[in-house]
Every structure is written in structure tokens, then in C-alpha cells.
């Protein structure tokens, strides 16, 4: 509740500081309509008033999602009895699908349904998947792990079907975030600043849900009952949908949403089908027809460099969690922290850093650079990529210490024994993940949202999720390929089930090298990138 109050206080403070003149001016908001399709006045809808419903429902959705995702590898290696390499690949594949679904779903939302309707449909699918997931785990809650191998195959099929229904429901992510940003008019100076802050507070509020999941749900799942641990997210998602619909009368709906399909057909299809424009076409007409495709093509190089960061981020849900399961996680004589609960430090780090960034750093930087966002979006992304590289170096050094400690205490061949090394050693790598997200996650989402036409912003925002999904697929491929190559002739591979004989440190060093390559390439691309819509030209220095 403290973090929730912090987020809401920040929102109110932002309005108080700017005095938000659009609440005092009863003017019609151009390009937007109310839920009935009528013109709307600035004083009656939109802004933080509408965004508050979206922020709370988004927080509940992240509570549900991380209640499944962050402890999934424990379920697969525990009740399902999978090996670490197989489970890690399966988790990466599922997260990859869940991250790529918003790309295709956003295309459908922008072209046909509209963002609001897409959010409702995705929520229903999401809730159905969570309900079936809960039912699929009930048998495992009543029997021991040793007898689990003989469970009904139907229950296993139901588990994976429901899991991928949850992945299908991730269309919700990009649509609801784009819909939340739509509540601020980018053509109004004060609302434009508020829109930039929305992306910061969006992440902050999502961390409230994530923190609750890490601290509450994972303890229930590991120590009480998997069925209850999956059932609570089901209830949370239903509450989130109800709250989202309560704010219906206050929302801004884009009056140009129905033009998205026409824009896609005209700008993208004609770009590739009509190679040579008609001679009578004016230069301005040609520019209009091809502008949409050019924008997406210009974003691809920047997008591709983000993959080097998302591959590293994919380890949080897999190897970081398994690494945490091997160390001493005790707090006091009788309580042990669940491995997945260490991810709470990511959310806590974000919740601590976002207010500092938004309320202290941005105003100071704004006075120096004269940019409304303090620093440019690509500068923010580049800073996050640099922190990510540093984090993988730290993770590799900590893993080297863990392996040395296991060797010194004779625990190399006792994989189930806790290495006498406090979990606090792992806290820095989780905390730095949060700091990385403050820069690159928010920066990239704002960048891809801002650099596409208004009617296609759900699709633009989904580019980040597409990068995250592709990064997870690449991570799963790397893990499988490296394990196969390093475990030949009876050797222990880098991802041996006995982590005391594995070499996660080698893999972390490899990811650090990939990250350095991506950062250098990103810096070169950023220096020559020209923003759309009169945004400031990038001047990023590596």
C-alpha cells in the first residue's frame, strides 16, 4: 500500500506543480471522442483522472502475470520434474510467445477492434486461462512430487493449454498502456509533459503488483498450495477488469482509431506493391503514402539492438531464480525466502528510482537540455543498456564466488544443500535490473509509442514487447545449443542440473560481451537518428 500511495501521490503532485490549465479551460479535445462517440471537453475527461483507473487495473494485471511467470521455473522443475535446461527453455519459449502476442494483437486492435474493445477481449481470454490453470494444478496440490510422475496426461495438457491462453491474453499489455497514454493530449504542452510522466508512473504502479506477487504469491506456492497460488491471480484479474470498466465514462477514445486500417493499407502495402508512383502524383502525396512504412523501417535498426538487452533480461525468470535456490535464504531461525521472491528487489528498486527520476532528475535535466523529457528517449535507452552490461558482469563475478564457496565447503556433489552464502550477495544483480528498467524499459516504450502515427500506437508500443519476446526465444536457443555442445562425452554442461558443477558464470560473461556489442551499435545508430514530429535530434555519446 505504501508503494501504491507513493505512485498516486506522485500523480497528484505532478498535477499540482503544473496547475494543469487544461482542467480550467473547457475546450473541445481535437481528435478524441467519449465512449458514445461524441466530442469531449478537456475538463470532463482524460488526464490523470482517467489514467488512475488504468494504472490500478494494470497493477492488478501485473500481479496476476508475475504470480505465474516469475515462479514458473520452480513449478516445472518441481511438480513437473523437468531438468533445469529444459525448464529454462520452456519458460523462455512461453515468455517469448507472451511477449510476441502483443505485436500481432496490437495490429488487430489498431486495424479492427480498437484499443478499448481489444482490452476487454484480451481480459476475458486472460481470465479464462488463469481459471483453467488453477484447475490444472489442483491434482498436484494433493499429491507428493515423487508420485507426480504418474499424474494424468490430461491434466498436463490442460496446464500447458491454459498457460498459453494466458500468453494469448497478453494483447492486454500493449493495448492498455497505449490506451492509458491516449488519455493525455500530445498537442497540449502540459498534457504532453504529463504523458511522458505517465510512462514512468505506469512502470511504478506495475511494480506494486509485481512486488505483491513476489512477496505473497510465491510463498503460498512454495509452502502452502500451488492451486491457491494460481487461483489468487485469477481473482485479481477479474477485479482489474471491473475497475477498468468503471472508468469507462471518463476515457478519451481516439476519433481517428477507425482510420488505422486505411493507413496500414495505404502506407505499407502501397509502399511495397507500388514501386513506382504515378507520374501525376505530387511529391507531397508520395510522401504521405510511404511515410508509415518508412517510419517502421527506420525503427528496425534501433529495435534490433534492443535484442542484446532482452536476451540478458530473459535470465531473470530462469537462471537468476535457480541461482537463488542454491544459496542461504534464511531470515531468522525458521523462515526462508522463496527463490522467486528475490525478484521483489527489482520492483522495489524501480519504485524507489522512478520518483527520483521523475521528480528530481527530469526537472534538473530539463533546465540544462531544454528537452521536455529531460534527456532524449534514445539517451535514456542507451543508459539502460550500459547498466545492463555492468549488471551481467556483476552477476558473473557473484556466480564465480558462489561456485568457489561450494567448492571450499565440499558441496560440489551435494546439489540439494544450501551453499553457505547469503542471498544478500544476489541482491545487487536484482536491484540493477530494476535500475536498468527505469531507463531502457520506460525509454523504449515511450520511444516506440511516440515515433509511429497516432492510429498505430498500440502496434508501435508492441515493438518493445516483440523485442522482449524475441530475446527470450534467442535465450532459449542459446541455452539449448550451449548445453548440447558443452555436455558431450559425459561432461557437465554449463547448465547442469547440479548448479555447483554448472557454469552460469561463463554464460553471464557471454551475455556481457553481447551487450557491449549491442550498446556500441546502438550508440552509432542513435547519433544519426532524426525524431519524428519535430522532436529534438539525438546527440547520444557512448
UniProtKB/TrEMBL annotation:
Keywords: Membrane, Transmembrane, Transmembrane helix. The chain crosses the membrane at residues 88-109, 116-133, 153-172, 198-220, 226-246, 299-320, 340-357, 378-398, 423-442, 463-486, 506-526. It holds the Pfam family PTR2. Its main location: membrane. InterPro entries: MFS_trans_sf, POT_fam. It is a multi-pass membrane protein. It is found in: Membrane. Belongs to the major facilitator superfamily. Phosphate:H(+) symporter (TC 2.A.1.9) family. This is Protein NRT1/ PTR FAMILY 5.10-like.
Amino acid at each position: 500500500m505504501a508503494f501504491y500511495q507513493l505512485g498516486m501521490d506522485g500523480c497528484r503532485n505532478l498535477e499540482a506543480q503544473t496547475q494543469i490549465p487544461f482542467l480550467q479551460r473547457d475546450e473541445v479535445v481535437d481528435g478524441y471522442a467519449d465512449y458514445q462517440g461524441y466530442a469531449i471537453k478537456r475538463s470532463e475527461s482524460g488526464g490523470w483522472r482517467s489514467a488512475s483507473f488504468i494504472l490500478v487495473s494494470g497493477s492488478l494485471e501485473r500481479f496476476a502475470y508475475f504470480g505465474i511467470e516469475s515462479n514458473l521455473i520452480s513449478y516445472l522443475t518441481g511438480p513437473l520434474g523437468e531438468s533445469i535446461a529444459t525448464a529454462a527453455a520452456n519458460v523462455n519459449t512461453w515468455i517469448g510467445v507472451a511477449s510476441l502476442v502483443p505485436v500481432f494483437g496490437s495490429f488487430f486492435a489498431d486495424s479492427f477492434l480498437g484499443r478499448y474493445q481489444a482490452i476487454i477481449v484480451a481480459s476475458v481470454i486472460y481470465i479464462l486461462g488463469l481459471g483453467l490453470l488453477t484447475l490444472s494444478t489442483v491434482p498436484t496440490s494433493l499429491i507428493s512430487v515423487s508420485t507426480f510422475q504418474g499424474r494424468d496426461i490430461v491434466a498436463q495438457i490442460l496446464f500447458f493449454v491454459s498457460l498459453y491462453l494466458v500468453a494469448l491474453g497478453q494483447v492486454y499489455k500493449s493495448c492498455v498502456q497505449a490506451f492509458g497514454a491516449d488519455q493525455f493530449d500530445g498537442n497540449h504542452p502540459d498534457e504532453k509533459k504529463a504523458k511522458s510522466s505517465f510512462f514512468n508512473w505506469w512502470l511504478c504502479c506495475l511494480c506494486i503488483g509485481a512486488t505483491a506477487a513476489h512477496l505473497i504469491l510465491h510463498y503460498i506456492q512454495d509452502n502452502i498450495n500451488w492451486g491457491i497460488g494460481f487461483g489468487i491471480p485469477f481473482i485479481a484479474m477479474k477485479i482489474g477488469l471491473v475497475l477498468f470498466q468503471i472508468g469507462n465514462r471518463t476515457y478519451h477514445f481516439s476519433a481517428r482509431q477507425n482510420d488505422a486500417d486505411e493507413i496500414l493499407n495505404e502506407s505499407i502495402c502501397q509502399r511495397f506493391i507500388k514501386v513506382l508512383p504515378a507520374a501525376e502524383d505530387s511529391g507531397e502525396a508520395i510522401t504521405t503514402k510511404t511515410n508509415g512504412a518508412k517510419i517502421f523501417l527506420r525503427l528496425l535498426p534501433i529495435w534490433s539492438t534492443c535484442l542484446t538487452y532482452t536476451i540478458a533480461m530473459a535470465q531473470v525468470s530462469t537462471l537468476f531464480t535457480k541461482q537463488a535456490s542454491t544459496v542461504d535464504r534464511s531470515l531468522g531461525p525458521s523462515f526462508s525466502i522463496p527463490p522467486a521472491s528475490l525478484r521483489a528487489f527489482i520492483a522495489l528498486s524501480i519504485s524507489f528510482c522512478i520518483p527520483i527520476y521523475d521528480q528530481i532528475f527530469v526537472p534538473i535535466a530539463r533546465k540544462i537540455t531544454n528537452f521536455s523529457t529531460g534527456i532524449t528517449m534514445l539517451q535514456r535507452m542507451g543508459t539502460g543498456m550500459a547498466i545492463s552490461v555492468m549488471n551481467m558482469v556483476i552477476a558473473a563475478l557473484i556466480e564465480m564466488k558462489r561456485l568457489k564457496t561450494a567448492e571450499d565447503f565440499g558441496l560440489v556433489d551435494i546439489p540439494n544443500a544450501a551453499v553457505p552464502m547469503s542471498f544478500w550477495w544476489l541482491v545487487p544483480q536484482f536491484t540493477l535490473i530494476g535500475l536498468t528498467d527505469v531507463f531502457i524499459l520506460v525509454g523504449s516504450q515511450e520511444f516506440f509509442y511516440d515515433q509511429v502515427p497516432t492510429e498505430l500506437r498500440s502496434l508501435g508500443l508492441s515493438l518493445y514487447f516483440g523485442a522482449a519476446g524475441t530475446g527470450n526465444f534467442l535465450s532459449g536457443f542459446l541455452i539449448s545449443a550451449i548445453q548440447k555442445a558443452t555436455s558431450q562425452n559425459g561432461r557437465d554442461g554449463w547448465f547442469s542440473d547440479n548448479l555447483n558443477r554448472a557454469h552460469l558464470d561463463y554464460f553471464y560473461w557471454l551475455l556481457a560481451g553481447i551487450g557491449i556489442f549491442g550498446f556500441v551499435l546502438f550508440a552509432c545508430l542513435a547519433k544519426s537518428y532524426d525524431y519524428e514530429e519535430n522532436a529534438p535530434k539525438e546527440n547520444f555519446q557512448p
